[in-house]
Amino acid sequence: MMKGSNILNLRFNQDQGCFMASMENGLRVYNLEPLVEKTHYDTETVGSVASCEMLFRTNILAIVSGGSHPKFPENILYIYDDSQKKTVIEIKFASAVKAVRLRRDKLIVVLLNRIHVFSFLHPTRELFSVETQKNPKGLCEVSPLQSSHRQVLIFPGHKLGSVQIVELSTTLQSYSSAPIYIQAHKNELACMAINQQGTRVATASEQGTLIRVWDTTTRNQLVELRRGADPATIHCMNFSADSDFLCCSSDKGTVHIFAIKDTNLNRRMSGLPPAIRGTLGKYGDSQWALANFTVSAECPCICAFGPNNSIYAVCFDGTFHKYAFSTEGICHGEAYDVFLEVDDDDDSF
Predict the structure, then answer these.
(1) Could you tell me which of 235, 194, 323, 254 has the C-alpha nearest to residue 10?
(2) Phi/psi class of residue 326: alpha, beta or left (left: φ > 0; alpha: ψ in -120 to 50)?
């Protein structure tokens, strides 16, 4: 009987076609369409794994140890080639690695108070590093597309509730440009997301009631979205590939889908009489999710968009959910599975 508590971290790859389950008893990598296990490593091979980042649909995995029985120090990053079944790069840092993000040409490593940016994969050398505020969650995202002219790195700024933006394509090794910030929230940031093209950023604070979407060029707020009225911990946000929609998941076990391009699709309190709605102030004008569904009560999950207006929810209790949504706000379940019990598949990534 598998236990969902064995899962320490869940993460989609950059095109959201695969996900990695970092576990107390090793690491597993899954394909989403169809849902099959692509590879797994047991405790003897990798120990317990705190986090893993996969480079698109390649054999390259960035692995960070952690949990109750790590095989390697938590301040060493291992780049593992699944096709060669060996570590190809090993980098030691001054403190524990909190997160890793990959592009085909960049490797970003997040520590508690510093972010290191490397060229990747051949050669791998440090380009620059930047000091940050304390970032125990390892909050950091980077736009993944090579075809986009934007190479945007985002992470929490020094001012409470702010997001710092770094344009990687114009930042030199000396890193001396003035920081660019978005003052996103009054409270500490809890979650952030960037779209594939690097033009949009979504932010949520520890309050977890509001999500704001920003333009990375102008730094203007594009839309404010309301997840709910009660505080919640937002675990994951992702844009659709075309940036028309945004999904988010919280510790309430609910996944919300918002319209970003056509915000008229989002629900509003239009049914209330204007006199009553006016007394609610900004809350009365809120944009609520056009659709939502609940996977498991009080169970955190990560969420992402699939083809044809579908949504994946991968949960820490070991369950996989696929829903379809319509622009009229209707959701219906399309698939359910316990992914830790899914058979493996011998094909390459």
Answers:
(1) 235
(2) beta
